[in-house]
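Thread: Newbie trying to understand structure tokens

Hi all, I'm a second-year student working on a class project, and my supervisor (Dr. K.) asked me to get a predicted structure for one chain before our next meeting. I've only ever worked with sequences, so writing a 3D structure as a token string is new to me. If someone could post the tokens and maybe explain what I'm looking at, I'd be very grateful. Here's the chain:
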Amino acid sequence: MKKLSEKQKKVLEFLTNYTDARGYPPSIRDIAAACKISSTSVVDYNLKVLENGGYIRRDPEVSRGIEIIESSRRREKVAEIPLLGYVAAGEPIPVPQADTWTSTPLEMIVLPDNMVTDKKAVYALKVKGTSMIDALIDDGDTILVRQTQEVRNGDMAVVWLKKEMESTLKRIYFSKTRKKVRLQPANRYMEPIYTELNNIDVQGKVVAVIRLLG
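---
Reply by user tm_fold:
Sure, no problem. This is what the structure looks like when written as tokens:
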């Protein structure tokens, strides 16, 4: 193997520690920030040196596609979920696009591959408010949402209110005639929202919650 410069040793050490801690490799920008490298092109140059020297293997078709070449270490498969915006767990709040969540992601959230099924239909939103606190969803949490309009009574859903042009996160309940809807918070201090069925557009069903501790 080719002898490495101090910078390349630092990059390799960061790659190893990051992958061990998280189960997946860092992004180019992660490497640049951690190793105090001025640009992503310089990071790419040093990764090419590591690859040519036999220290790592790179897959150009895969984001974060870096594998450290050691017999005991293999890169865990990961899923990248788009963080598309914010949703209110409280009073509804306006969102940038009234009719759809499909937009340029704020960022990509990297998760273990086995944590997410049907990846093409799942997106993430940041929660604002505490109306779902009794369902263990707090202000600042991230929810994973599966795109669907098929929900049942009691499902936790992201709902677009057409007249108000606002979004909200609530448990959804349909009237017996299915002409009206109750959007129920999970907070005893907050009142439900009552509206007509034709005033809502279900954007998706919550399938997971991500919370950073500390």
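A couple of things are worth pointing out once you decode it. The domain at 6-68 is CATH 1.10.10.10 (Arc Repressor Mutant, subunit A). The radius of gyration is 22 Å. Feel free to ask follow-ups in this thread.
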